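Quarterly update, task 2.4: fe (iii) ion-bound model.
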Amino acid sequence: MTLIIHTIPAFQDNYLWLFHQSGERAAFVVDPGDAQPVLECLARHDLELAGILITHHHPDHTGGIKDLLAHFDAPVYGPNSAHIPQITQQVGEGDRITLAGARFSVLEIPGHTLDHIAYHAAPEDESPLVFCGDTLFSAGCGRLFEGSPEQMHQSLQKLAALPDTTQIYCAHEYTLSNLAFATAVEPDSKALQEKTAADTTKRQQGLPTVPSTLSIERETNPFLRCHLPTVVQAAMQHSACQLQSPAEVLREIRLWKDNF
Ligand code: ZN
Ligand code: FE
């Protein structure tokens, strides 16, 4: 059994993920901000929509639900959130759901929004994976629209505690601009130079830079590195403040990035 995951680009820089078990027609889509490209992908691969997974309430992640439900009678999994009335299966921390033969567990990861969740699976004989929406990006993290830096720090640490080989299926192609910022924070990082070279080539070839891998993110993503001396130093220098905790470091580099 193999989990097949299709990458569906949408809007300017969103990725919608569609997955199914090889040889099976039942497919599940994550964060369908737009229905049309999902319907096209389903038709192209002769699949049927068997479920919708939502990570958080923003329209670029939920805007296609209504149109998809007009074509398919499918359950909608998502967080307990007043903003998403179409959810039929509310899920929260520790809940387990089996989709396309893979057992997913739900992580609550507030910060970008308060209702943000992730779906993590470790299919047998395959790399573990996580659909993490707009919380963890390759070389970056989501903006703090609703949560506090402390919440975001805890949420990112929860994701960072997943196995090293976890594939990070984030919802946007922000990698190159994130890497430019990460390099401003840690200019001497060889890992960042290597990732920037590799991802620049991918983009030149029109390829996505995601999924990323957790081990690479631990080495290159400043928002997962708020406890490390190089990042702490850079944040203190940039903010001209004495910073006492990783959450304070995260607050400062998030502000820095917002204005980068
Ligand atoms: Zn969002
Ligand atoms: Fe988004």
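Highlight for this quarter: The mean pLDDT is 97.
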